[in-house]
Structures are given as C-alpha cells and as structure tokens.
Amino acid sequence: xxxxxxxxxxxxxxxxxxxxxxxxxxxxxxxxxxxxxxxxxxxxxxxxxxxxxxxxxxxxxxxxxxxxxxxxxxxxxxxxxxxxxxxxxxxxxxxxxxxxxxxxxxxxxxxxxxxxxxxxxxxxxxxxxxxxxxxxxxxxxxxxxxxxxxxxxxxxxxxxxxxxxxxxxxxxxxxxxxxxxxxxxxxxxxxxxxxxxxxxxxxxxxxxxxxxxxxxxxxxxxxxxxxxxxxxxxxxxxxxxxxxxxxxxxxxxxxxxxxxxxxxxxxxxxxxxxxxxxxxxxxxxxxxxxxxxxxxxxxxxxxxxxxxxxx
Length: 311
Description:
Layout: H1 3-75, H2 79-84, H3 87-159, H4 161-168, E1 171-179, E2 185-193, E3 203-205, H5 216-237, E4 239-241, H6 242-249, E5 260-263, H7 282-288, E6 295-297, E7 303-304
Antiparallel strand pairs: 1-2, 3-6, 4-5, 5-7
Helix pairs in contact: 1-3, 3-4, 5-6
C-alpha cells in the first residue's frame, strides 16, 4: 500500500472517531435519561422479585428459629441435656441463624440496590449536564445581548435613532406611478421599513389566535386587557416570561420565550408593552383606529431573566 494512503486512512478514522465522540457527548443527557428510565423499571422488577424470595426466606428462618428454641427448651430440663446443648452453643446457633439470614437478605436485595443506585446516578448526571448547558447558554446569550445593546447605543449616539432604525430593520423600495398636472406618468419611489420583521419576539395577533375577533374594537379591548393583566402579574410576582404572555394571547410558545421576559427592579422598562401605541408603526396606528383587525405585536422584553430573578 502506498505510504500516502497509510497517512490518509488513519486521519479519516481519527476524524470519524472524533465526530462520533462529539455526537455521543451531545446526546449524553438523553442517553443517561433513557438509561435511568430503563433502570427505574428494572429496579421495580428486581425489588418485586426479591420480595417473593423474602417471603420464602422468612418462613424458613422462622422454622429454623423455632427448631433451635425447641431443642434448647427440651435440653435445659435435664442436666444431661444442658451438658449436650449448653446455653453458649444455643447463643452461637442463634447468632449464626441471624447472621446467615441477614447475608441471604442482603444477597437478595443487592441487585435491586445496585441497579437503583445506578438509576439515580444516571438521572442526576443527565439533569446536571442539562443544567450546566442551560447556564452556559444563558450566560452566552446575556453577553451577546449586552454587546448588541451597547453597539446600538453607540450607533444612536453617533448617527441618531433614525439611522439606527435604518440599520436595524430591513427596508424595501416601493415604486408607484401617478399622473402629474399635464397628464404625464410620474414614477414615485418610497422607501418603507418592513415592520413584519420588527424583532425576534414579534408575533401576529390574527385569526389564528382563539380570542381574535372580526370586530377590530373588540380586539383592541382584549389586547389592552391582556396587557394590563400581564403588568399586574409583573408587579405582583416580580417577573413574567414571554411564553406566559404568549399564553394569554393564544400564541404558540417558543424556545426563546422560556428564558426571556421582564423583571421588576432592573435596567429594563419595569412594565410590559405590546407595542399597540407605537407612533412610528403605521400598521399599529391602523389597528388602533379600527382600520385593521389584526396587528403585529412586538414586546419590550428585558432579555434573559433567569440571571436577574432574585438578584
């Protein structure tokens, strides 16, 4: 075999082994949790099996104990019997019976204890790995969020809020044709901000939501009531997760909504806003004025709040 091939093959094997190890590490919490579930079932089975054996063992132990006691009781009635079966031997026989019984019981329940212990180890390790990963993810998200907010502040300080909005949100050129006073076609170009991509957490309140109504006024009343309810919850409890607000509105939960939200007493707004009265959002103005039945809600979340709760 050519020497170059000998160099390539081990390298490929090493890469494949490394990828397999990484994949195994990634799936380790699920593997450990699955092993824990299997171990839990095995523990119950082994414990049930040991109980059946224990009943038979207790019956045999009781018979042997009664036999030893009867022999001793019959022997102590005469000097010849006491000499052939003294009290010291009787105590030794009792000690042997109890020790042997404890050994047999330990042997019966040893598999149950071992499997049960391994089950607890697997479940605990799975929980620990996931907790550590979640902590690391939240820390990384918090750092990214602070960096992003600091970047936006520098842009606003340097160029103003209008330029920040232009950089942050995508825009689209809308071309329309109209007639001037002489009847000549004139093309008008207007740059419009695409508010349907306003933020990661923005969601539509529309006919897909169970509480949506064809009456725009009803929808506005409902959303204002839910916003007030969310703020009451924030003031009463000190924190609210975005997913809880989604639940109030009949909007499906998201992974991000499980960790971001609002906290009282931090650098956030200390209130929950759905973006209903955003004066720069023409779609929101149309909704509030009853010209639209649906609205894109954008929420002023404080960011990841797990590291802020209780601090």
